[in-house]
Amino acid sequence: MKILTKDQILEASDLKNEAVEVPEWGGSVLVRTMTGADRDAFEASLTTTLPDGARKPNMANMRAKLVALAVVGEDGNRLFEVNDVDRLALKSAAALERVFAAAQRINGLGAQAEEDAAKNSKAGLSEGSTSA
């Protein structure tokens, strides 16, 4: 197995795009795998810290949040900013769901990704493995 250098890792082109047809919007959008920073921002946006320091789920505009982070233009730059999420959330639920589902799939998010990871984890264990 080839061991990569820091420069090879930092220079690797590892963000992939997928075109998703959105008839409600009259065309297609490019959905990109998120950067690590984008994924952290998305996950952080799904919880709210209460005054006592406890955290509770915040699912408000969850689909619009992910779509805003994952949809890019042909230049690879995000089309939406954080302040666009509320307006994006007012778009067709069917259209948002279609783009959201694609973003989940290519970013390894959601229940299906968890099931796939569990299957891969079990399949990767050999009979002599001491891993649980």
TrEMBL record:
Read off the InterPro entries from this record: TAC_Gp13-like_sf
Q: Where is this region: Disordered?
A: 111-132
Q: What is the protein named?
A: Phage tail assembly chaperone
